[in-house]
Amino acid sequence: MSAQQEEETYELEEYWPTTAWLDVYQEDLTASEELSEKMSGWGQGFNGDFVFEINNLPIEENTVGDLPEEVWSALDTGIRQLPDSVLDTVLEDAPEEVQNGIEEREGPLAERAANELLETRIENAPDKVWPGLRRVMPEILDGLLEELEENVTDEGHVYAWIGLEDGDCTGTDTLMELDERDKGFVLTGEYEQWVRLVTGELDVVEGIMSGELELDGDMQKILQYSDAALLMTDIASETDKRFLF
């Protein structure tokens, strides 16, 4: 990895799908005068709030080492640079599963420890973090694991609530249960389809019509405000993002 690559860092808000990115998306929606015009009257006399249901993030099959390189490389480097005596101290309070996994591997201690953590499946990663590890863990990885623990369901789903009324985005939230907030519409798709949607490769109306996306709500309202729906996806595609998977 080049020196330039080593220096690349990104903020949590740049990673999709995270609550931090959702906050930036809210700001971009609110700042759009065109969207305000096209959504005038939306939610008047009906609930215009949405939940974007992003299903089956690949957290079961992907490992920490499958995340973008800038997320895990500092952890890998930090562990491999520790003297064995220091690393032994760091590992003293590690979960038993981590200690056993390291013990079963072959090679130098630092290599075994780094590989054990990087080969951890993402869904299990929060359970393998302990205070000593946080001292060598990059802040962005710590933040992403916290997001995973607090905002992704056990099944690997993300429920992003978007408040919309009369041209305004009234707020955003991430839910652990679909019924935590009132909403008028639920737009559901697999993770891969959402990636296509937020990059502008998939037209939201065509996605619903083709069955690639599923809408729970009044389709006539969506067709009535189709220009606004398309503009919302355009804004999402223009909002800076880096994909975790």
From TrEMBL:
Domain named SCP2: residues: 171-227
Top-rank taxon: Archaea
Pfam families per UniProt: SCP2
InterPro entries, A to Z: SCP2_sterol-bd_dom (IPR003033), SCP2_sterol-bd_dom_sf (IPR036527)
Protein's UniProt name: SCP2 sterol-binding domain-containing protein
Species assigned in the record: Halorientalis brevis
